[in-house]
Design goal:
This protein has 463 residues and is α+β, with helices and mostly antiparallel strands. The chain is built from 14 helices and 24 strands. It is globular and about 75 Å long. The protein binds adenosine-5'-triphosphate (ATP).
Length: 463
């Protein structure tokens, strides 16, 4: 058994060694809280995004996909409350000048910081003699705005101030009118978006859990205010279904109802979906009833009408919103944590990722048993071509011996390995030549004829 810390270390080193996730800017010493997704991580991420779009856009008739700009102007983010209030409590070590999240230091000392003002946090740190992790005195707590600011063009006047968006949601709200005018949707309807968001986190940590550059998958679902309770329950179910569908361990997923004092003032109900990561139970997704807060704010600041008129009843009102918000990087960490498994095969410990085939970077790996027999390599190439044309993400693997290939494919979560061997070429059975199929989770093998391979995998991969 691994300790939690060992598990995290193993996942991080697997991600690096097998091409899933690298520290960004590593060549130059690395950037804290920023990561690059490597070849396999990109495939995994893309599979998740495609499944999300399929489930929440393509298979529905009431949602629209959006891809709004990452850079947003100051006015829009002032209206949304981010310029004034999107901040975390920061405190520094007076000796080293290192910065910390005051609420995290209080939590670590067993004190609940929820609902405390900045001054109350300063007081609580003093009253409890809390020092920095290096054992030094702490200064006063202050608000630190998490948005990354930039300037558009060469002018330094404030009208050119812009920000990297801190969430994808605001790009949806500022496009409400465009979507109404171009698509003419009837309520209820949703707008879904996947994209990068940026938060200048004071202490990025826990690998891809707390990032400065992150990716979100968010839906703003516009409803009639009378309908919010039903819709909230409906989306709660959808989020559970989604989690199960992509292979998140449902025994490690908890719904946490957020109490009134901890909710945003405009939200009448919020549920955090928390996951049991190796470093503790922390937020994976959020589901919030945002009322009409965002549309009303943008209407006020932009002096625009952001409303809806019911075509049957003639009633005009500002729609309310249910927001399922899902962090993509935290999803990947939850999937990897759920999938990482160690067992014993032939007396040796092996580790593998028990990924669901729908998210696995490669669905199948094809190998020739040996590299130096022309006919075997030729046949394996033929089988590879057939499977790649049908299933796309199929790997060709002829490195090392077959045992090593299995270990490598296990580690990256490939559900099936197909091996073309001497029996495949057995002339007595030329009409229904067979290949060996090895299953990742059981390490068992079976033989299937090449003619049947496509149907076999269609069923196994449920594509
Ligand atoms: P936390 O309390 O952990 O900082 P949050 O409540 O600020 O998170 P939201 O603003 O609700 O998070 O963002 C929606 C989703 O975006 C979160 O549920 C999470 O999956 C993801 N997310 C937010 N901040 C980060 C981050 N710094 N790194 C990675 N993912 C993040």
């Amino acid at each position: 058994m691994n300790t939690d810390e060992q598990l995290m270390e193993k996942i991080i080193s697997l991600c690096k060694n097998r091409g899933f996730i690298f520290q960004a800017g590593e060549l130059y010493g690395g950037l804290s809280g920023i990561y690059d997704y490597g070849p396999l991580g990109s495939l995994l991420k893309n599979n998740i995004k495609n499944l999300w779009i399929k489930k929440f856009v393509e298979e529905r008739r009431d949602t629209y996909l959006l891809d709004s700009a990452i850079i947003m102007g100051e006015k829009a983010l002032t209206a949304s409350g981010h310029v004034g209030g999107f901040s975390d409590p920061l405190v520094d070590d007076v000796k080293t000048e290192k910065e910390y999240r005051a609420d995290h230091l209080l939590e670590d000392a067993g004190i609940n910081p929820e609902g405390m003002s900045i001054d109350e946090m300063s007081q609580a740190l003093k009253d409890n003699n809390i020092l920095s992790p290096e054992g030094n005195k702490l200064g006063d707590v202050r608000e630190f705005n998490l948005m990354l600011k930039t300037q558009l063009g060469s002018s330094s006047d404030s009208s050119s101030t812009a920000y990297l968006r801190p969430e994808t949601a605001q790009g949806i709200f500022v496009n409400y009118k465009n979507i109404m005018d171009s698509m003419h949707p009837k309520l209820p309807f949703g707008v879904a978006q996947i994209g990068k968001a940026y938060r200048n986190e004071i202490t990025p940590r826990n690998f891809i859990f707390r990032l400065r550059e992150l990716e979100q998958m968010e839906i703003e679902y516009f409803i009639h205010p009378d309908d919010w309770k039903n819709q909230f329950d409906y989306w709660r179910e959808e989020m559970n279904e989604w989690s199960e569908m992509i292979g998140i361990d449902m025994n490690k997923l908890y719904e946490v109802e957020i109490g009134e004092e901890d909710r945003a003032h405009y939200s009448e109900r919020t549920i955090d979906f928390e996951f049991d990561y190796s470093f503790g139970q922390k937020e994976l997704f959020g589901l919030a009833y945002r009322g009409d807060y965002d549309l009303k704010k943008h209407a006020e600041y932009a002096k625009a009408k952001l409303q809806y008129t019911d075509p049957h009843r003639g009633e005009t009102f500002v729609p309310h919103v249910i927001e399922p918000s899902m962090g993509l990087d935290r999803t990947i960490l939850a999937i990897l944590t759920s999938a990482y498994t160690e067992d014993e095969v032939d007396g040796n410990t092996r580790s593998y990722l028990a990924l669901k085939p729908n998210v696995a970077p490669y669905k199948i790996a094809v190998s020739p048993l040996v590299k130096n027999k022309e006919h075997i390599v030729e046949k394996a190439n033929e089988v590879f071509g057939i499977l790649k044309a049908e299933f796309g993400n199929v790997a060709w693997d002829d490195n090392g011996n077959v045992g090593k290939r299995y270990r490598r494919q296990d580690e990256i979560g490939t559900p099936f390995c197909v091996v073309v061997d001497y029996d495949t070429l057995d002339e007595d059975h030329a009409d229904f030549a067979t290949v060996s199929i090895r299953h990742r989770d059981t390490a068992e093998q079976e033989r299937i004829s090449i003619d049947e391979l496509k149907n076999y995998f269609k069923e196994k991969l449920s594509l």
